[in-house]
């Protein structure tokens, strides 16, 4: 509904979270699906800055500007849909890198993010895949492979486009 798409609602929601934080009921507060404009608006008006921003992030959506904003304001930039909702595991570049480093395509996609200091939260309903997706800290992607993956950036969104929210 339109009423949720206005800045006033964001400000009111954030003030409520701040209040709960002050009361000690919330240890950390953050936002999701904020654009650079939403982040600047929040940082300028908040009493307590957000601890985290959770957004869609993968090689086809590198979020360069948003990552800079988070770095500037010391907000943890956190990835969702790192596997492109599962669709990126069949990308030809991802498959080539996967072959080079003898890791699964999902591990390549997740390692690409964590190697840049970005925490990930992949979803799987399969216990073997969950274990496989967690094995990210015993290998490194070469600079060449990192660059090849980052070169896939094309602003592609598997989920939705938060810039539509005014
Ligand atoms: N803040 C937000 O607005 C927002 C929006 C979207 C998502 N999220 C969060 O982010 C999490 C992950 O995002 P997501 O579910 O959109 O996408 P994702 O993690 O990129 O992809 C999940 C899909 O990948 C498949 N998959 C997982 N591991 C795999 C592997 N090793 N090999 C092949 N396929 C694999 C899964 O299938 P199987 O289950 O069959 O393994 C599932 O279909 C969500 O659970 C949610 O917590 C947050």
UniProtKB/TrEMBL annotation:
Q: Where is the NADP-dependent oxidoreductase domain?
A: 11-152
Which InterPro entries does this UniProt record tie to the protein?
Answer: AKR, NAD(P)_OxRdtase_dom_sf, NADP_OxRdtase_dom
Q: Which domain of life is it from?
A: Eukaryota
UniProt-recorded Gene Ontology molecular function terms:
oxidoreductase activity
What residues form the membrane-spanning segments? Answer: none
Gene3D superfamilies registered for this protein in UniProt: NADP-dependent oxidoreductase domain (3.20.20.100)
Record protein name field:
Prostaglandin F synthase-like
The organism's lineage is: Eukaryota, Metazoa, Chordata, Craniata, Vertebrata
Q: Which gene encodes it?
A: LOC104959016
């Amino acid at each position: 509904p339109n009423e949720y798409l206005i800045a006033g609602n964001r400000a009111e929601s954030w003030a409520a979270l701040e209040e709960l934080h002050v009361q000690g009921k919330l240890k950390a507060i953050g936002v999701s699906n904020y654009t650079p404009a939403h982040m600047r608006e929040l940082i300028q008006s908040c009493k307590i800055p957000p601890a985290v921003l959770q957004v869609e992030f993968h090689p086809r959506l590198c979020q360069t500007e948003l990552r800079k904003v988070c770095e500037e304001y010391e907000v943890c930039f956190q990835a969702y849909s790192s596997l492109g909702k599962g669709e990126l595991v069949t990308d030809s570049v991802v498959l080539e890198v996967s072959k080079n480093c003898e890791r699964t395509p999902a591990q390549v996609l997740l390692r690409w993010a964590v190697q840049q200091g970005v925490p990930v939260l992949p979803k799987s309903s399969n216990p073997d895949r969950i274990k496989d997706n967690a094995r990210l800290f015993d290998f490194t992607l070469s600079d060449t492979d990192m660059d090849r993956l980052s070169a896939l950036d094309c602003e592609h969104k598997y989920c939705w486009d938060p810039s539509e929210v005014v």
